Amino acid sequence: MRRNRISRLAARRRQYTGETYAQARAALDSHEAPLPAAHRAEQRNFEAEVFDAVLNSHSRLTETTFGIAATRPARDSLELEVENEERGDALMRRLLPFREPGADEIRGVPGLRITKRTSRGIELHISGQQTCLWLTGLSAKAWKRVENALLDGLQEMSWQSLWTTSYAWTAAEGAHEAKWNNGNWNKRMHAGAWLASGLLRRIPAFHCLIPAQTVTGYMGLGVIGYEGLGPVRWVLEVDFAHGRPAFQEGLTAALTDRDLGLPLSPARHLEVSQGGPLPPNILRFDDSARTGLVEFRCSTGMYSSLVRDHPETAERIERRVRRVLEQHPWYGYRPSAPPWRSRPPSHVTSPGTKHDVVPGALTVCAACWGLWCYGCSVGGGLAGVWVRTARRCTPRGRDGRGRNGQHHHGAGRAGGRSRVL
Question: Model pTM?
Answer without folding.
Answer: 0.78
